[in-house]
Amino acid sequence: MSQSNVWLVTGASRGLGFDIAKTALKAGHKVLACYRGNKPQDTSKWDELEALGGIWTQLDVSSEDAESRVKAIVGEQGRIDVLVNNAGYAILGSIEDVPLDKVQAIFNTNLIGTLRTIKGVLPSMRERKSGTIVNISSSNAINPVPALGIYTATKFAMEGYTETLQTEVAAFGIRVLLVEPGATATEFASETGTGVRTQPSEPYQDGIVKQITDFLTSEQYASMGAPSIVVAERIVETIDGTGSMTGKEVDLRLPLGKDTGAGLGKKATLLANLASLEDVWGSV
Questions:
Q1: 126-156: per-residue pLDDT in tens?
Q2: pTM for this structure?
Q3: Domain 6-281 has CATH 3.40.50.300
Protein backbone atom coordinates (compact mmCIF):
# COMPACT_ATOMS: atom_id res chain seq x y z
CA MET A 1 0.00 0.00 0.00
CA SER A 2 1.52 3.31 -1.10
CA GLN A 3 -0.74 5.66 0.84
CA SER A 4 -3.39 5.86 3.51
CA ASN A 5 -6.88 6.03 2.05
CA VAL A 6 -10.21 7.18 3.47
CA TRP A 7 -12.69 4.30 3.74
CA LEU A 8 -16.45 4.43 4.31
CA VAL A 9 -17.78 1.05 5.47
CA THR A 10 -21.53 0.58 5.87
CA GLY A 11 -22.98 -1.95 8.29
CA ALA A 12 -19.82 -1.81 10.39
CA SER A 13 -21.31 -2.30 13.84
CA ARG A 14 -21.09 -6.09 13.71
CA GLY A 15 -20.00 -9.13 11.72
CA LEU A 16 -18.12 -8.80 8.46
CA GLY A 17 -18.51 -5.03 8.29
CA PHE A 18 -16.83 -4.60 11.67
CA ASP A 19 -13.97 -6.87 10.65
CA ILE A 20 -13.48 -5.04 7.35
CA ALA A 21 -13.28 -1.73 9.21
CA LYS A 22 -10.86 -3.16 11.77
CA THR A 23 -8.63 -4.75 9.13
CA ALA A 24 -8.51 -1.56 7.07
CA LEU A 25 -7.53 0.42 10.17
CA LYS A 26 -4.74 -2.02 10.95
CA ALA A 27 -3.55 -1.61 7.36
CA GLY A 28 -3.07 2.09 8.03
CA HIS A 29 -6.22 3.55 6.52
CA LYS A 30 -8.62 6.13 7.89
CA VAL A 31 -11.98 4.43 8.38
CA LEU A 32 -15.44 5.85 8.87
CA ALA A 33 -17.43 2.95 10.30
CA CYS A 34 -21.15 3.37 9.71
CA TYR A 35 -23.85 2.27 12.13
CA ARG A 36 -27.60 2.56 11.67
CA GLY A 37 -29.17 3.31 15.03
CA ASN A 38 -27.93 4.38 18.43
CA LYS A 39 -24.67 3.60 20.18
CA PRO A 40 -24.96 0.01 21.51
CA GLN A 41 -25.19 -0.78 25.20
CA ASP A 42 -22.26 -3.18 24.80
CA THR A 43 -19.56 -0.78 23.63
CA SER A 44 -16.73 -3.31 23.35
CA LYS A 45 -16.65 -3.26 19.54
CA TRP A 46 -17.23 0.47 19.51
CA ASP A 47 -14.27 1.03 21.84
CA GLU A 48 -12.06 -1.44 19.96
CA LEU A 49 -12.49 0.40 16.68
CA GLU A 50 -12.00 3.81 18.25
CA ALA A 51 -8.77 2.59 19.88
CA LEU A 52 -7.49 1.80 16.39
CA GLY A 53 -8.42 5.29 15.18
CA GLY A 54 -11.80 4.43 13.66
CA ILE A 55 -14.51 7.07 13.43
CA TRP A 56 -18.08 5.92 14.07
CA THR A 57 -20.51 7.59 11.67
CA GLN A 58 -24.30 7.37 11.76
CA LEU A 59 -25.75 6.29 8.41
CA ASP A 60 -28.98 4.44 7.68
CA VAL A 61 -28.77 3.32 4.05
CA SER A 62 -32.51 2.56 4.03
CA SER A 63 -33.28 6.23 4.66
CA GLU A 64 -34.18 8.48 1.73
CA ASP A 65 -31.62 11.04 2.90
CA ALA A 66 -28.72 8.54 2.82
CA GLU A 67 -27.38 9.92 -0.46
CA SER A 68 -27.24 13.49 0.85
CA ARG A 69 -25.76 12.22 4.11
CA VAL A 70 -22.93 10.50 2.21
CA LYS A 71 -22.31 13.64 0.16
CA ALA A 72 -22.05 15.57 3.42
CA ILE A 73 -19.50 13.04 4.72
CA VAL A 74 -17.48 13.44 1.52
CA GLY A 75 -17.53 17.19 2.05
CA GLU A 76 -16.43 16.86 5.67
CA GLN A 77 -13.60 14.45 4.88
CA GLY A 78 -12.52 15.98 1.59
CA ARG A 79 -12.76 12.63 -0.16
CA ILE A 80 -13.80 9.00 0.14
CA ASP A 81 -11.29 6.70 -1.56
CA VAL A 82 -12.98 3.38 -0.80
CA LEU A 83 -16.70 2.77 -0.33
CA VAL A 84 -17.62 -0.65 1.05
CA ASN A 85 -21.33 -1.42 0.75
CA ASN A 86 -21.73 -4.09 3.42
CA ALA A 87 -24.99 -3.10 5.13
CA GLY A 88 -27.75 -5.62 4.58
CA TYR A 89 -29.73 -8.47 6.08
CA ALA A 90 -31.35 -11.77 5.17
CA ILE A 91 -34.94 -12.94 5.04
CA LEU A 92 -35.55 -16.63 5.60
CA GLY A 93 -38.73 -18.10 4.19
CA SER A 94 -40.35 -19.44 1.07
CA ILE A 95 -41.18 -17.11 -1.81
CA GLU A 96 -44.87 -17.69 -1.07
CA ASP A 97 -44.63 -16.99 2.66
CA VAL A 98 -42.57 -13.78 2.76
CA PRO A 99 -44.99 -10.79 2.90
CA LEU A 100 -44.57 -8.19 0.17
CA ASP A 101 -43.94 -5.40 2.65
CA LYS A 102 -40.91 -7.33 3.90
CA VAL A 103 -39.80 -7.87 0.29
CA GLN A 104 -39.96 -4.12 -0.32
CA ALA A 105 -38.08 -3.43 2.92
CA ILE A 106 -35.17 -5.75 2.15
CA PHE A 107 -34.83 -4.40 -1.39
CA ASN A 108 -34.80 -0.88 0.07
CA THR A 109 -31.81 -1.79 2.24
CA ASN A 110 -29.87 -4.42 0.30
CA LEU A 111 -30.29 -2.92 -3.16
CA ILE A 112 -31.50 0.69 -3.12
CA GLY A 113 -29.40 1.43 -0.04
CA THR A 114 -26.24 0.58 -1.97
CA LEU A 115 -27.32 2.82 -4.84
CA ARG A 116 -27.82 5.70 -2.41
CA THR A 117 -24.28 5.47 -1.09
CA ILE A 118 -22.79 5.03 -4.56
CA LYS A 119 -24.62 8.10 -5.83
CA GLY A 120 -23.23 9.90 -2.79
CA VAL A 121 -19.57 9.21 -3.61
CA LEU A 122 -19.55 9.10 -7.42
CA PRO A 123 -19.48 12.86 -8.16
CA SER A 124 -16.34 13.30 -6.05
CA MET A 125 -14.70 10.14 -7.37
CA ARG A 126 -15.40 11.19 -10.97
CA GLU A 127 -13.95 14.64 -10.37
CA ARG A 128 -10.80 13.16 -8.82
CA LYS A 129 -10.67 10.31 -11.38
CA SER A 130 -9.97 7.91 -8.55
CA GLY A 131 -11.80 5.65 -6.13
CA THR A 132 -12.91 2.12 -5.36
CA ILE A 133 -16.48 0.91 -4.88
CA VAL A 134 -16.91 -2.47 -3.20
CA ASN A 135 -20.28 -4.23 -3.14
CA ILE A 136 -20.61 -7.18 -0.78
CA SER A 137 -22.79 -9.76 -2.50
CA SER A 138 -23.14 -13.44 -1.56
CA SER A 139 -22.40 -16.93 -2.78
CA ASN A 140 -26.19 -17.25 -3.03
CA ALA A 141 -25.92 -15.18 -6.20
CA ILE A 142 -23.84 -18.03 -7.61
CA ASN A 143 -25.71 -20.98 -6.15
CA PRO A 144 -29.18 -20.05 -4.80
CA VAL A 145 -30.74 -22.20 -2.10
CA PRO A 146 -34.37 -22.60 -0.95
CA ALA A 147 -35.59 -20.37 1.92
CA LEU A 148 -33.29 -17.53 0.83
CA GLY A 149 -35.01 -16.64 -2.43
CA ILE A 150 -35.93 -13.04 -1.55
CA TYR A 151 -32.51 -12.29 -0.08
CA THR A 152 -30.88 -13.89 -3.12
CA ALA A 153 -32.99 -11.73 -5.43
CA THR A 154 -31.50 -8.59 -3.86
CA LYS A 155 -28.01 -9.93 -4.50
CA PHE A 156 -28.76 -10.93 -8.10
CA ALA A 157 -30.02 -7.39 -8.69
CA MET A 158 -26.91 -5.93 -7.06
CA GLU A 159 -24.64 -8.07 -9.21
CA GLY A 160 -26.49 -7.00 -12.36
CA TYR A 161 -26.07 -3.28 -11.79
CA THR A 162 -22.52 -3.72 -10.47
CA GLU A 163 -21.43 -5.27 -13.78
CA THR A 164 -22.96 -2.29 -15.58
CA LEU A 165 -21.46 0.20 -13.13
CA GLN A 166 -17.96 -1.16 -13.68
CA THR A 167 -18.22 -0.44 -17.40
CA GLU A 168 -19.81 2.98 -16.91
CA VAL A 169 -17.20 4.37 -14.51
CA ALA A 170 -14.02 2.75 -15.85
CA ALA A 171 -13.27 5.83 -17.96
CA PHE A 172 -13.21 7.91 -14.76
CA GLY A 173 -10.49 5.79 -13.17
CA ILE A 174 -12.93 4.25 -10.68
CA ARG A 175 -12.50 0.61 -9.75
CA VAL A 176 -15.50 -1.60 -8.91
CA LEU A 177 -15.26 -4.84 -6.94
CA LEU A 178 -17.98 -7.42 -6.32
CA VAL A 179 -17.29 -9.68 -3.34
CA GLU A 180 -19.10 -13.03 -3.14
CA PRO A 181 -18.44 -14.52 0.31
CA GLY A 182 -19.79 -17.89 1.32
CA ALA A 183 -20.93 -18.80 4.81
CA THR A 184 -19.15 -16.79 7.49
CA ALA A 185 -19.08 -17.27 11.23
CA THR A 186 -21.31 -14.27 12.01
CA GLU A 187 -24.85 -13.76 13.33
CA PHE A 188 -26.07 -12.89 9.82
CA ALA A 189 -28.82 -15.51 9.61
CA SER A 190 -29.41 -16.09 13.29
CA GLU A 191 -32.48 -15.16 15.31
CA THR A 192 -30.38 -12.69 17.32
CA GLY A 193 -28.49 -11.32 14.35
CA THR A 194 -29.52 -9.42 11.25
CA GLY A 195 -31.77 -12.09 9.76
CA VAL A 196 -35.56 -11.99 9.55
CA ARG A 197 -37.20 -15.38 9.82
CA THR A 198 -40.63 -16.04 8.31
CA GLN A 199 -42.42 -18.99 9.86
CA PRO A 200 -43.22 -21.60 7.19
CA SER A 201 -46.90 -21.98 6.40
CA GLU A 202 -48.49 -25.42 6.62
CA PRO A 203 -47.52 -26.62 3.10
CA TYR A 204 -43.84 -25.89 3.86
CA GLN A 205 -43.72 -27.22 7.43
CA ASP A 206 -42.11 -30.55 6.59
CA GLY A 207 -40.17 -29.74 3.45
CA ILE A 208 -36.84 -28.34 2.32
CA VAL A 209 -37.71 -24.74 3.28
CA LYS A 210 -38.22 -25.64 6.95
CA GLN A 211 -35.11 -27.84 6.98
CA ILE A 212 -32.86 -25.15 5.54
CA THR A 213 -34.36 -22.42 7.73
CA ASP A 214 -33.70 -24.46 10.87
CA PHE A 215 -30.16 -25.24 9.71
CA LEU A 216 -29.27 -21.63 8.86
CA THR A 217 -30.37 -20.47 12.31
CA SER A 218 -28.58 -23.26 14.17
CA GLU A 219 -25.40 -23.06 16.21
CA GLN A 220 -23.98 -25.74 13.94
CA TYR A 221 -24.25 -23.48 10.90
CA ALA A 222 -22.81 -20.51 12.78
CA SER A 223 -19.73 -22.55 13.65
CA MET A 224 -19.25 -23.90 10.11
CA GLY A 225 -18.60 -20.66 8.28
CA ALA A 226 -15.23 -19.12 7.54
CA PRO A 227 -14.04 -16.68 10.22
CA SER A 228 -15.28 -13.27 9.13
CA ILE A 229 -11.92 -11.73 10.03
CA VAL A 230 -10.24 -13.93 7.40
CA VAL A 231 -12.84 -12.91 4.81
CA ALA A 232 -12.23 -9.27 5.75
CA GLU A 233 -8.47 -9.69 5.40
CA ARG A 234 -8.83 -11.07 1.88
CA ILE A 235 -11.08 -8.17 0.92
CA VAL A 236 -8.66 -5.54 2.23
CA GLU A 237 -5.70 -7.33 0.64
CA THR A 238 -7.53 -7.32 -2.70
CA ILE A 239 -8.27 -3.60 -2.51
CA ASP A 240 -4.71 -2.76 -1.44
CA GLY A 241 -2.91 -5.36 -3.57
CA THR A 242 -1.09 -6.70 -0.52
CA GLY A 243 -0.65 -10.02 1.30
CA SER A 244 -2.16 -12.94 -0.60
CA MET A 245 -3.16 -10.57 -3.42
CA THR A 246 0.29 -9.13 -4.08
CA GLY A 247 0.85 -9.09 -7.82
CA LYS A 248 -2.67 -10.39 -8.55
CA GLU A 249 -5.50 -8.64 -10.34
CA VAL A 250 -9.25 -9.02 -9.85
CA ASP A 251 -11.34 -7.85 -12.78
CA LEU A 252 -14.69 -7.64 -10.96
CA ARG A 253 -15.66 -10.68 -8.90
CA LEU A 254 -13.93 -11.90 -5.77
CA PRO A 255 -15.41 -15.25 -4.65
CA LEU A 256 -14.38 -16.20 -1.11
CA GLY A 257 -14.89 -19.49 0.73
CA LYS A 258 -14.74 -23.18 -0.05
CA ASP A 259 -18.53 -23.35 -0.34
CA THR A 260 -18.40 -20.52 -2.86
CA GLY A 261 -15.90 -22.54 -4.86
CA ALA A 262 -18.28 -25.49 -4.85
CA GLY A 263 -21.04 -23.21 -6.10
CA LEU A 264 -18.81 -22.00 -8.92
CA GLY A 265 -18.28 -25.62 -9.92
CA LYS A 266 -22.04 -26.19 -10.12
CA LYS A 267 -22.47 -23.02 -12.17
CA ALA A 268 -19.71 -24.10 -14.56
CA THR A 269 -21.43 -27.45 -15.03
CA LEU A 270 -24.73 -25.70 -15.75
CA LEU A 271 -23.13 -23.47 -18.36
CA ALA A 272 -21.37 -26.43 -19.93
CA ASN A 273 -24.69 -28.27 -20.18
CA LEU A 274 -26.20 -25.31 -22.02
CA ALA A 275 -23.69 -25.89 -24.79
CA SER A 276 -25.66 -28.98 -25.75
CA LEU A 277 -28.52 -26.66 -26.73
CA GLU A 278 -26.41 -24.62 -29.14
CA ASP A 279 -28.46 -25.82 -32.10
CA VAL A 280 -31.54 -24.38 -30.36
CA TRP A 281 -30.31 -20.99 -29.11
CA GLY A 282 -28.12 -20.57 -32.15
CA SER A 283 -31.12 -20.95 -34.44
CA VAL A 284 -32.82 -17.81 -33.11
A1: 999 999 999 999 999 998 999 999 999 999 9
A2: 0.92
A3: no
